[in-house]
Amino acid sequence: MAAKKLLRAIIMGAPGSGKGTISSRIMHDFDVKHLSSGDLLRKQIHDKTANGLTAKRFMESGELVPDNVMLRMVTYELSQLQNTSWLLDGFPRTVEQAHALLRDYPIDVVLNLRVPFEVIIDRIKGRWTHLASGRIYHTEFNPPKVPGLDDVTNEPLVQREDDKEETVRARLEHYRRLTHPVLQYFRNKGMVDEFTGKYSNELWPQVHGSLSKLVKPIKYTHYE
């Protein structure tokens, strides 16, 4: 009996591009383990591993966790998954990390979700929150009955700092600057599949079709 083909993939996409939604669908339909660098970092800090303690020292002093520390964390986790398909999310962030990762692990594909920044900004800046209850409204998709007021208490809604247009735009520009060199590195190697759309349900059939050429899905879930 032939060994099952394992998938080794990376997913990239700006904040608000639906990367979390698409990742969970890939896990569901392709039986892969989703490895988020942020979750991994928090886990190793919580478990007080040597790498976690090193990373914590940098974070507490307001510095970025160095490439080599992140690389050690990720490669250790991947070494535990030799017989498992995986999807790497949030790593690599630099060309140096990408080069080092490819040296040890052959990657089948880099999935890049291309959602126009203006679409993401419009989606996020429409969010308004009732702070006391945590209820979230959206001016377009889920508006309050009375503009600016919570449906239950009639108290005023506020826009969180993270949801303000200028904050979202700055975050997206930072993402573009950070990831452009990494994407170009992978593109130059012919490893990137690009998916363009406004919504996760528009992107998902494209992503599923691309991955199905590499490994056999365990199912195809259609989302309206």
Short description:
One of its GO terms (molecular function) is nucleoside triphosphate adenylate kinase activity. With 224 residues, the chain is α/β, with parallel strands linked by helices.
Can you offer a commentary on this structure?
With 224 residues, the protein is α/β, with parallel strands linked by helices. It has a domain at 8-116 and 179-213: P-loop containing nucleotide triphosphate hydrolases (Rossmann fold), CATH 3.40.50. Helices cover 46% and strands 15% of the residues. It contains eight helices and seven strands. The chain has helices at residues 19-30, 37-46, 50-60, 67-79, 95-104, 117-125, 165-188, 200-212; strands at residues 8-13, 33-36, 86-89, 109-114, 127-130, 135-138, 192-196. The strands form two sheets. Strands 2-3-1-4-7 form a five-stranded parallel β-sheet, with helices on both faces. The protein has a two-stranded antiparallel sheet with strand order 5-6. A hairpin with a 4-residue loop joins strand 5 and strand 6. Helix 2 (37-46) packs across helix 4 (67-79). The longest helix has 24 residues, at 165-188. The radius of gyration is 20 Å and the shape is globular. The mean pLDDT is 92. Pfam families: ADK, ADK_lid. Keywords: GTP-binding, Kinase, Mitochondrion, Nucleotide-binding, Transferase.
Largest sheet: 5 strands, parallel
Number of strands: 7
Taking pLDDT < 50 over at least 5 consecutive residues as the criterion, the unreliable ranges are none
Question: What's the mean pLDDT score?
Answer: 92
Architecture (CATH level 2) name of the domain at 8-116 and 179-213: 3-Layer(aba) Sandwich
By CATH reckoning, the class of the domain at 8-116 and 179-213 would read Alpha Beta
Morphology:
globular
Strand content: 5-15%
Share in helix: 40-55%
Treating each run of at least 4 consecutive H or I residues as one helix, how many helices? 8
Could you state the order of secondary-structure elements as H and E? EHEHHHEHEHEEHEH
Q: What structural class should be given to the helix and strand makeup?
A: alpha/beta
CA-to-CA gap between the ends?
37 Å
Subcellular location: Mitochondrion matrix
Protein name: GTP:AMP phosphotransferase, mitochondrial
EC number: 2.7.4.10
Enzyme class: transferase
